[in-house]
Amino acid sequence: MEILVRLGIKADLTAIEKFDEMGGDRDQEMDEKRCFVAINDLEEVVGYASYQREGLVGRPFLDSVCVIESARREGVAKALVKRIEKAAKPEKLLSSAEDWNHEMLQFFQSQGWEAVGTLKGVNEDGSSEIFFAKDLK
């Protein structure tokens, strides 16, 4: 599958709403040019990723990565995160995932992110949040 990653535009919102599992405001992220979308060979939106330029302790923070189920394990998340890394350079990029989100935890590990801390029981469901960092220098 060929994947094109570009800045999200308002016309992408309808497609994203069909598979979006994350909190946040995609509309606002697009207005602020911090939401990227992945487009497949059929010109369909199959994923998105967003970040905050000064999210956590003044560092760029990868907020969300969401890929439509039918396109998972096809390199979509990797392409999206690489584009966010490019936008965040030359900073250290931070992110986090719930301790039950094994797919994302495995993704971070496979892409060279370092686990840097855990907040135990901080989420509404009682789960812990694991924080990660990737040095982009």
UniProtKB/TrEMBL annotation:
InterPro entries: Acyl_CoA_acyltransferase, GNAT_dom. SUPFAM superfamilies: Acyl-CoA N-acyltransferases (Nat). Residues 1-137 form the N-acetyltransferase domain. Transmembrane segments: none annotated. Pfam families: Acetyltransf_1 (PF00583). One of its GO terms (molecular function) is acyltransferase activity, transferring groups other than amino-acyl groups. This is GNAT family N-acetyltransferase. It comes from Romeriopsis navalis LEGE 11480.
